[in-house]
Amino acid sequence: MIDIEKLFEKMPVDDETIYENSLFITKNGLNMKFEEWAWSNYKGKSLIFIESEIEDLAVEITNSNMKELAEKVLDMKIDDPVTLKVNAGFVFFNFNFEII
Q1: Mapping DSSP to helix (H, G, I), strand (E, B) and coil, where does residue 81 land?
Q2: Of all helices (H) and strands (E), which one includes residue 5?
Q3: How far apart are CA 71 and CA 77, in angstroms?
Q4: Are 70 and 95 in contact (CB under 8 A)?
Q5: What distance in Å separates the CA atoms of residue 4 and residue 25, rounded to the nearest whole number?
Q6: What is d(CA 20, CA 38) in angstroms, rounded to the nearest whole number?
Q7: Alpha-carbon distance 96 to 83, whole Å?
Q8: 3-class SS at 27?
Q9: pLDDT (tens digit, 9 = 90+) per residue, 51-99?
C-alpha cells in the first residue's frame, strides 16, 4: 500500500498561509490532498493533485477540467472564481474563496 503522505512530502508550502485542515484522499486511482486555509484576508479550499497522475489521465490541466474533476472527487459544488497553479510537480486547484 502506498503511503500517500510521502507522495506530498516535497510539495511547496507557503509560509504565510495558515493551514486549518488537511486530508489525504485516494479516489479512482488519484492521490490528492485537500486543504482548508487562510491567507491574508482570504479563506479558501485547495485540492492538490500530483501532476504526473493528471497527465496519465490525458486530461488537459485547465480551470474548467480541474473544476469538473474536483467536483466529482469531493462531491460538492465549487463556486467561481477558481485559481490553478502548477508548481514542482503538483497541480494546485484553489476554490470557494471567502473574504475574512
Answers
A1: coil
A2: helix 4-7
A3: 6
A4: yes
A5: 8
A6: 7
A7: 10
A8: strand
A9: 999 998 888 999 999 999 999 988 989 989 999 999 999 999 999 999 9
Cell of 62: 485547465
Count, residues in the chain: 100
Task: Give the predicted TM-score (pTM) of the model.
Answer: 0.92
Q: Cell 467561481 identifies what position? A: 80
Q: All 3 cell numbers of residue 67?
A: 473544476
Could you tell me whether strands 90-99 and 42-50 are parallel, antiparallel, or unpaired per DSSP bridges?
antiparallel
β-pair type (42-50, 83-87): unpaired
The full DSSP string for 47-80 is EEEEHHHHHHTT----HHHHHHHHHHHHTS--PS
